[in-house]
Amino acid sequence: MAEAREVKAKEAPRPREIAPGFAEDEWQELPAYIPVDPEEHRVACVIAAAIAAGDRPESEMKIRRVSMANPEYRRVACIATAIGAGALEESSFKVRRIYKKKDMEKDYAA
Fold it and tell me: I want to staple 67 with a disulfide (CB 3.0 to 4.6 A). Which of 22, 33, 60, 77 is the partner?
């Protein structure tokens, strides 16, 4: 008697998802803070270093990176939490990540 063997085709790996039904490769994470040039914000850097030094004038501070809040991130977070609060007034929310749909038109030639 001949035995019939069931041959399973290898399934293609499923793309990672950021949420059910949303493939990670179609979305990019929006940063909460964006870098700025320290030379453009010299006064803010001096003030921040002075506050951090406190009452120790002999201390030395090095500012490695200067960032500012991303206005697009803040705007989207406010809208999302306002919508959520409208539905569940007694709740509190914490925005962990915000994703933005990638512009797929750049990938194709005209």
Answer: 33
Helical spans, DSSP H, in 25-92: 42-53, 71-87
Q: Tens digits of per-residue pLDDT, 57-102?
A: 788 877 788 888 999 999 999 998 888 888 787 888 788 889 998 8
What are the residues whose beta carbons fall under 8 Å from the beta carbon of 3, sequence distance 6 or more?
none
Task: Assign 108 to helix, strand or coil.
Answer: coil
pLDDT in tens, 10-20: 666 777 887 77
Q: How far is it, in rounded angstroms, from Cα 21 to Cα 8?
A: 25
Backbone angles phi, psi at 78, to 5 degrees: -65, -45
